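Study both lines:
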Amino acid sequence: MPEPEFKFIQNKNLEKKDYVVDQGYEELTAEEHDRWRRLYRRQMHILQGRAVPEFFENIEILKIAEKNIPNYEELSDRLEDVTGWRLVPVPGLVPDDVFFKHLANRRFPATNWIRSEEQMDYIVEPDAFHDVFAHVPMIADEFFADYLQQYGKEGLEALKRGTLKNVARVYWYTVEFGLFKTDDGLRIYGAGIQSSKTESIYSLESPKPRRVLFDVDRVMRTDYIIYTFQPTYFVIDSYDTLIEQTSPDVLREKYEEILADPLEFEPDKPVPGDREVPPNPPTEMFRHFFTA
């Protein structure tokens, strides 16, 4: 399968406003709201016992409901009361420096359109369901909100130092595809998994991928795949661990090490020193999706 190309928004008028646009809430159609409802209902069912508890708690706190695509302004008011973050509507992927600037200022760029009917089961680029349903509940967690702001600041620093791809891997393997180790087994906190019908099951229960305890050097040197399930997931045991391992002092030391020795790891290959974590036991839902 060829690797898809992401198209960044390039428009001088948008650039002057950091690519922020109006959500166009009144222009959303009944069909689009219905698509949200079906996606929401399906994913809430699948994520029971699979997502971290904070995800469900913050869905309730923020009143992200099944009924309609949320109004970003109203949702921002509730999110700001909890962690000081706001959503900024954008029409698509934005350049790295703009994205990092938003995060560093506790603004989360949220796409202002929802996937088509043909993309219900798989979409390459983020849409409103991915951004709002999967990302926003985690931003309502105090530790995760602070981590995301710290990541934005470090992304701007990485741009200066020429280590952007290494910092992008940290985002990919945590914010998008991170797993959490709990006493009750593995749970999902990454939005890329939480918004996926099949990867939310595969990531926890399939024997095929490797699950490795998080090590920031390992993560920064490991490439990733954007068009299929991840062959390797990285697992944290607390948000404190994540924040400590990605602190500015640690990351800036890693920048120097990587520039001096640009060793790279393949995403599907084991690395000496990996500490692997076993998958959760397969459920009937896993057997239905993957062994039928």
In short: DSSP finds 14 helices and six strands in the chain.
